[in-house]
From TrEMBL:
Classification via Pfam families: AAA
Source organism of the structure: Shimia sagamensis
InterPro entries: ATPase_AAA_core (IPR003959), P-loop_NTPase (IPR027417)
SUPFAM superfamilies: P-loop containing nucleoside triphosphate hydrolases
Signal peptide segment: none
Descriptive protein name: ATPase family associated with various cellular activities (AAA)
Length: 645
């Protein structure tokens, strides 16, 4: 058993003693809906031909007008689930697994509720209340604790259900809509409300076994989201959010209102590329190779990466370049490296791409898709790599009328996930945003990319010879000629030359700023002089804010980690990957190099170059569009006057 210092074991006997209560709930209970309305109302028959059914009675007695007149309904989930497979009278393996999973989830939720009651003092208040000895001064706290227990139990039930049934999911998808019957009077009523609404969804939306599992899992996800939202302003939840439980038999970790995900990697079918098959893009390739190895330093017991603690970990990056310069190849190379390393180490690797097909016309669905993507990659039980290709088409600029509501939702989700108040960088995953037109990405979202990978493709004569020879393959007899194949792709030599080239800016606008500051203060060899340079950049481009400075300093820390973890560490797990966290951290610290003024100036220029490049392109596009609109207006006016004459 592997428990971290802040985890408690949820004992198997504490779970199994609630099995009878869980089975009783699944077998049947009566529930009067308070908030939601049934999805499959039974039509009231007419009293006689031509005369409609009587309207529902509405009380006129003061105080009773707003009371619900809905009748109690019997909820029999066992029968409902067993009837979801068609005409077969026998219970199928899928139905049996679903029922076992839900019984287990209910029992886990009740066990956590019991732990919460003991830890928060609610159990004592319940005993006093039963004995009629609950003082008036304790009634408010009693009600608040009952509501907190209801939220905790409801969330754990949904969390455990989603976790336990995830292996049964197929390709089917079911839209259940928003969960409404979220009750907080007490834990039992909360579970009754959730099970009643789930029964309604199954009755209305399920026609076969595949849709049964998809419906229950979709309901669990919606219930988790609704309960977590309700819990944001609820009091007395400290005993739940401040604790963590491990269910060893299921490998399930319950950590407050954080969804548990199974440590399941994705099966990759992409065509991987080797580093020597990526021609040009020297800095981008070098940083991608380093980042792939950085991810492997993640410690699953501590749930932290030494690089994230020491500095130099790249949580988000943006790769930009013209079409055809190799962004997809870079993704294939990095995913292939991480996949190979994880197979050697025995880690679960999850790769996921968020594409244009995740933008949905259904209101709120695009945001849900983005949240699910982020949560899947962030899962602390796996090594994650998430990519957002063509992000300029996926995430809309705020205030842009041409952006759909779905694109605006995605932008809001990514901004919160990548650098929001609740963002926690553990160092087990990284997100890469790629675009041919990064100037079309919202400024604030683009600045959340901590590193910039300029994907400029082959540049030199040697690069073009290398890429031609590579793509031609071996099925020909054409001589190579006077050339040493791939010598120009020697990574250390190429990277040193690329970094050196950023000692001076590349963009004309930034070069003017650099020359002016250099003429005033001389060499940028002190923090004061570099700060003067940064202020001058901000005056030239107001979008160069404090976040830009943070991204630059993070990039400098990456340069301080300007070393590659030895390949042998990736090939023989016992040398590094299987070491404890403190040993890994000490081994990495020994490899660090000192930060120099040259590093800082080069990283300022690299980052500012990219911002000036984006701004210049963005302004040019805006000007071109305005000119085209003016020309159209003038041509239309001229044609109108000619027709009138």
């Amino acid at each position: 058993m592997s428990l971290t210092s802040d985890q408690m074991e949820l004992r198997e006997e504490d779970i199994r003693k609630h099995y009878d209560a869980a089975v009783a709930m699944l077998d049947g209970f009566d529930h009067t809906p308070r908030i939601a309305k049934g999805k499959d109302p039974v039509a009231t028959p007419e009293r006689s031909s031509g005369i409609g059914a009587r309207r529902r009675f509405r009380s006129t007695t003061p105080g009773l007008v707003t009371r619900s007149t809905a009748r109690p309904e019997g909820v029999h989930l066992v029968e409902r689930i067993e009837g979801a497979g068609g005409e077969d009278p026998l219970v199928s393996p899928v139905q049996a697994n679903v029922l076992h999973g839900m019984r287990r989830a209910l029992a886990i939720a009740l066990a956590v509720g019991e732990n919460f009651a003991e830890g928060s003092g609610l159990a004592d208040l319940k005993r006093d209340n039963l004995a009629g000895a609950l003082g008036a001064d304790k009634k408010t706290a009693f009600s608040e604790l009952l509501a907190a227990e209801a939220l905790a139990v409801g969330y754990v039930f949904a969390n455990a259900t989603s976790f336990l049934l995830a292996p049964l999911l197929g390709e089917a998808q079911v839209e259940v809509g928003e969960v409404e019957e979220v009750l907080t009077d007490n834990a039992q009523l909360a579970l009754h409300g959730a099970l009643w609404e789930l029964d309604q969804d199954i009755a209305a939306l399920v026609s076969d076994e595949d849709r049964l599992v998809a419906c229950i899992c979709a309901f669990a996800e919606q219930l988790m989201e609704k309960v977590a939202l309700r819990a944001q302003n609820a009091p007395q939840l400290g005993a739940f959010v401040g604790a963590s439980w491990k269910v060893e038999a299921d490998a399930l970790t319950i950590n407050g209102f954080t969804p548990a995900r199974a440590a399941k990697g994705s099966t990759l079918t992409m065509s991987f590329k080797k580093p020597n098959e990526v021609v040009g893009n020297h800095i981008a390739k070098y940083q991608a190779m380093k980042l792939a190895k950085m991810l492997m330093a993640y410690d699953f017991d501590r749930r932290l990466n030494p690089f994230a603690e020491l500095g130099g970990f790249i949580f988000t990056f943006m790769g930009d370049g013209a079409p055809g310069t190799g962004k997809t190849t870079l993704i294939q190379m990095m995913a292939g490296l991480i996949n190979d390393y994880c197979q050697v180490a025995g880690y679960a690797f999850r790769y996921q791409n968020f594409g244009i097909d995740n933008i949905d016309s259904y209101q709120g669905k695009s945001g849900q898709n983005a949240k699910a993507f982020v949560q899947n990659v962030l899962d602390p039980q796996v090594i994650g790599f998430g990519t957002i290709d063509d992000i300029d088409q996926i995430a809309g600029k705020r205030g842009d009328r041409q952006s759909s509501a779905g694109q605006q939702e995605v932008t809001a989700v990514f901004m919160e996930a990548f650098a929001g108040a609740n963002t926690v960088v553990r160092g087990n995953c990284t997100f890469g945003m790629f675009s041919n037109y990064p100037e079309n990405v919202d400024d604030a979202l683009r600045q959340r990319a901590g590193a910039r990978f300029l994907v400029d493709g082959p540049q030199t004569q040697e690069d073009y010879i290398d890429i031609l020879a590579l793509l031609m393959g071996k099925n020909h007899d054409i001589a190579l000629g006077d050339h040493t194949l791939f010598e120009a792709q020697a990574i250390q030599k190429a990277v040193a030359a690329s970094f050196e080239s950023h000692s001076r800016p590349h963009e004309p606008g930034l070069l003017n700023v650099f020359d002016n500051v250099h003429g005033q203060v001389g060499e940028l060899d002190t923090i004061a002089k570099m700060g003067t340079y940064l202020k001058a950049i901000q005056e030239a481009d107001p979008r160069f804010t404090g976040r830009a400075i943070k991204n630059i300093t993070d990039a400098v820390k990456v340069r301080a980690m300007d070393f590659e973890l030895p390949d042998v560490w990736m090939e023989q797990p016992e040398l590094f990957l299987q070491k404890d966290y403190d040993t890994k951290s000490a081994m990495i610290s020994e490899l660090r190099v000192p930060i120099t003024t040259e590093m800082v100036v080069q990283e300022i220029n690299r980052y500012a170059d990219s911002e000036f490049r984006y701004a210049d392109k963005s302004d040019e596009v805006a000007i071109s569009n305005m000119v085209r609109d003016m020309q159209r207006s003038e041509a239309a006016k001229r044609r109108y006057l000619e027709g009138k004459a």
